[in-house]
Amino acid sequence: MDEVAMKACMRQNCSWRCLAPGSRPSKPADGALSRDREAVQTAPRPSKPKGASIDEFGGDGPTYLCAAVATTEEQLMALLKLRDGTDLYFKDWGSGKPILFSHGWPLSADMWDAQMLFFASHGFRAVAFDRRGFGRSGQPWEGYDYDTFADDIAELIKHLALTDVALVGFSMGGGDIVRYVARHGSSRVSKLALVSAVTPLFGKTADHDGVDKAVFDGIRAGLVKDRPQFLDDFSPLFYGTNHGTKVSQGTFKQTLQIGLQASIKATIDCVTAFSETDFRPDMAKIDVPTLVVHGDDDQVVPLQYTGKRAAEMIKSATLKVYPGAPHATATTHADQLNADLLEFLKA
Fold first, then answer.
1. What is the average pLDDT value for the chain, to the nearest integer?
2. Per the confidence metrics, is the pTM higher than 0.85?
């Protein structure tokens, strides 16, 4: 149990239990955590002065842990240990029908805060995760491809026992959820939403009129040369402020901070993944209702190459085009997107 969590327990006047020096709580069986919460409500509390220092619980003496939250480190830290040993960080807010959000490049689950807060407050269970290599997740040297990303999502869905879950993917995250359905099926999935997504194919090929490869070569070179400056220069296109969209300086600063938290190797490798992966074969495997949302002034992932074609290729897909909207619709058009997602999910 880390210092921050222990102090939070002390502030909340939680129930405590004593562990032998050096011992660790064991992982409970399914449902044991909730039973443990109930069991400690009447447990005797060791006497300690109000506001006691965390140091008083260390050393060679007994260790006191809040039994309500410290049953396992994994639950405490919201980390899932993936099959290759990589830690996957996730947020799990609210209760009700689940929604799983997959973030864009080079961000983290925090880009979904406006949606997470909204849906957790409207009777949904909102889950978002930091893709491997980004945010608070582990940073392995390899594994930045869509088959791996899809398998990571499959592990998270199984770990959280999510069923009838709606999958929402933004930008490169749209590829995550499409590949998940193509690779693992839709037995646990109720609906899909692709927001400013790179699907079905972002880059230009002999049979697809997309973005030229030279653009992505330039992105990779810019990241290698001066990643902080490159990402800072990228924000006006991302948010459309160069076309008049209003975004706060705080948002710009947060975006840069999140981007620099990621592994530079992951940031570079994912440019290749999202620009070259062909999701066209996956489109035919999507057999759940799908909402496609895209701005018609998206300077990063142009509508005509991606959202428009995805809606044409996916059975029973609905396309919503936001006039004048940039790439970052989850932020710049948060209220509109939340309303459209809510209507779609309740339909």
1. 85
2. no
